[in-house]
Structure formats: C-alpha cells, structure tokens
Write a structure and sequence with these properties.
Number of strands: 0
Distance between the termini: 59 Å
Radius of gyration: 23 Å
Organism: Hoylesella shahii DSM 15611 = JCM 12083
Keywords: Membrane, Transmembrane, Transmembrane helix
Shape: elongated
Protein name: Aminobenzoyl-glutamate transport protein
Transmembrane segments: 16-37, 71-93, 105-127, 147-167, 179-208
Order of helices and strands: HHHHHHHHH
Mean pLDDT: 84
Low-confidence stretches: 1-10
Length: 212
C-alpha cells in the first residue's frame, strides 16, 4: 500500500511538472510573440509586453493579478478538502457498524447542524425581501450568489471540525488547527499552477484588450 502511494504521488508530480513547464513556455511565447508581432505590424490592435507600457504593467500588476477570487476559492477549497479527510467523516459509510457511540453522535450533530444551516439560508434567500437577495429582488446576482462557493467551503470546514470534536477524533485545539490547514499540503502543486496560469491569463488580456 505504501509503495502504491509513492508511485501515485510521483505520477501526480510529473503531471504537474509538465503542466508548469507548458505554462512557462506559453508565458515566454506570449511575451516574445506580442513584441514580435507589434514590431512587424504596428497597426495590429495588440500591445507589446516588452514595451515601456507593458513592462510597467507586468511589474506593477502582479499583486492585483494574483489576488483575485480564484485565490480565495483555492484557499478555502483546500481547507474544506483537508478538513473532510482529516476529521475522519469519510470513514463513516464503510465503518458504520464498527463506529463508536461518539462517532454516531457526531454524525447526528452534523445532520442537525446541516438542517439548521439550510433553514437559515432559506430564510435569508427565499422569503420576499430576504437579506441576501440582490437589489432587484433576485437570487442572482446577489450577495449569496457571489459567495456561494465560499459559503459551501466554510460550511464543510465547520461540520468537519464539529464531527471531529464530538467524536473525539480531534482532541485538542492544535489538532483542530491541523484539520483546517491539512488540505493546503495536498493542494500545494495547484498553487504553483494557479500563479502561473492566472499570470498568463492576465498577460493575454493585456495584449489583446486594448485600453480605451
């Protein structure tokens, strides 16, 4: 089993490495290509990343490019993924008969929490003039629709920690913190892919979307 896990991680690492290399090559092509095409055909509606404007943009916009909604989704998604794996709630379906009283009690607590959360969300979104509806009275666009993914991630983190604490799988505050951050270790390769991918996307936007 251990050997299988090692092979699996090696394959995953190789795939991520190939993807990272592809993104790096595409980034170089975008930088050099925008400069070459603009130099050969100045009338083209594109901007060069190696012009004075392009260099200023690349240096000054790195933080803005990375600090988008996708970064928050990746962070909270990693926390939700790790908390579910770490707290042991995934063992429930295959170990139901062998679970302890506190494991069963933890499941009951989680179900009760989910019921309360669903009721609260319905009260905040379904009723006329609900707080989380948009200014037009619709569910989309609204505050709820903008934060739906983040709310799901936070709810998953909450119920995972609740199950872990009630079932005594998380016995200290340190273990609770470990539960919440464990998923970041699993998704570390995706952070590198995100950084390179979002920067490439921003560069392509700069090249082809000519400022008014």
């Amino acid at each position: 089993m251990a050997k299988h896990k090692i092979v699996y991680h090696r394959r995953t690492g190789k795939g991520i490495a190939h993807l990272v290399l592809t993104l790096v090559v595409l980034q170089i092509v975008a930088v050099l290509g925008s400069w070459v095409f603009k130099a050969v055909s100045p009338e083209l509606p594109i901007r060069s990343l190696l012009s004075a404007e392009g260099i200023r943009w690349m240096v000054g916009s790195i933080g803005d490019n990375l600090g988008g909604r996708g970064l928050v989704w990746l962070l909270l998604g990693s926390m939700a993924f790790g908390s579910v794996r770490f707290c042991g709630i995934l063992d429930v379906p295959r170990k139901w008969k062998a679970m302890t009283f506190w494991d069963h009690f933890g499941i009951m607590v989680v179900l009760a929490e989910l019921f309360v959360i669903v009721v609260l969300l319905l009260l905040l979104t379904v009723l006329p003039h609900a707080v989380l509806l948009g200014v037009t009275g619709n569910l989309y666009p609204s505050s709820f629709s903008k934060s739906f993914v983040l709310l799901v991630c936070l709810i998953v983190c909450f119920i995972s920690v609740s199950f872990g604490v009630v079932s005594s799988r998380l016995r200290s505050f340190e273990e609770v913190c470990d539960c919440l951050v464990a998923g970041i270790a699993y998704t570390l390769p995706l952070w590198l892919v995100y950084i390179l991918g979002i920067e490439l996307y921003a560069c392509l936007q700069f090249i082809f979307v000519v400022a008014a």
